[in-house]
Write a structure and sequence with these properties.
about 140 residues, elongated, 2 domains, mainly alpha
């Protein structure tokens, strides 16, 4: 059982790389549990393989349907945006995503301009506060 637990720890480090096994048999052969393990260790290794496989499958599926976008803010800007998010009862990332989507689409899914956005006042306030803070410095 100890060998299988060590395999789980080692295999968890593989999360950032491509899944190297094509099937459970290949995984069991690679871990050596078939030659030296008990029935319990083999069953545990099968569960470990299933868990690792599903993790990799979910990552691949997520990567095909999502993208990541990075935005940099100064600490002052982050504090201002964070305050707006709190006022709206949201976490920072959710607030920024909602703001971007609200800006991009209206309720019917059509593109719209910034002046039509219900959050235009919040954006204007944020920008004015940001510029005011920069002007003070």
């Amino acid at each position: 059982m100890l060998n299988a637990k060590n395999d789980l720890q080692e295999d968890n480090q593989m999360n950032t790389t491509e899944f190297p096994y094509t099937n459970v048999q290949e995984y069991l052969d690679a871990t050596g549990v078939l030659e030296t393990g008990t029935a319990e260790e083999i069953a545990y290794s099968r569960k470990v393989f299933r868990k690792l496989y599903l993790q990799q499958y979910q990552k691949r599926r997520y990567d095909k349907t999502h993208i990541n976008i990075s935005i940099s803010f100064s600490k002052k800007e982050q504090e201002l945006i964070q305050q707006l998010a709190i006022e709206n009862g949201k976490k920072l990332a959710s607030f920024l995503k909602d703001m971007a989507l609200d800006y991009a689409k209206d309720s019917t899914g059509n593109s719209k301009s910034l002046t039509d956005t219900k959050n235009f006042i919040a954006i204007k306030r944020l920008l004015s506060l940001s510029w005011a803070q920069l002007a003070i410095k």
